[in-house]
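Page 47, continued from p. 46.
Same chain as before, 276 aa.
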Amino acid sequence: MRLKRKLADLFAMLFAMGATLFGLVWLVWILWMTLANGAAALSPRLFTEMTPPPGSSGGLLNAFYGSAVMVLLAVAIGTPVGIAAGTYLAEHGRNSRLAAAVGFINDILLSAPSIVIGLFVYELVVRPSGHFSGIAGALALAMILLPIVVRTTDEALRLVPNQMREAALALGVPAWRVTSQIIYKAALSGILTGVLLGLARIAGETAPLLFTALNNQFWSADIRQPLANVPVVIFQFAMSPYDEWHALAWAGALALTVFVLGLNLVVRFLARRASR
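Result:
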């Protein structure tokens, strides 16, 4: 019996190591291909010129601008709502039916495919207005960001010891001030981690932007009109038959990968700092 348990333990260990190596091989391969092909296409023109017409060289300046505008607008929309909802779940709605319903809906939204969210915003905003827009793209990204911020805020606030709340309330501090001046400060690292995780998630989303912001080959600062963005440009250029567009797609993929990896490093640093 003891030998049987040892063999089972060895088999499980070997299987886990094999699965890990299998995943790492594909991850390293993807990163290497992105780095090798993207680095060859990197140049100052990538950040100073607009997306080119077919068969021409150029850059991704308008795509970088459009992505930055929509992502920042999505963070500005989704973060306050997500923090407020997470605060309600953790501080004011514990064990209530409304909180249970909100948590259940948030879990559904958290696992919803991004293309479904894009179609929803298309029917809600794009179709009534009659055209694609950066606002619609930002709303779609905000809906993807929102459940991540809600869940991480809820968990971060629940990790704050109840003794801090009880001590402040015993001194006569109002409940809203306890939350805003004490609980938020204690959970700040966890909340920021959630926001950065959501930011990393929406930075590379393509499907919802195809139905909302679409793309724009030219420079446009009007968020009420279609906006160029890096994920859609990568998708369209990679599917094209032009070598110049392929090179720009690889360069955009490398820039996006470096950005997401950098955000993940920041998230790990904040998470480690919060756990101390």
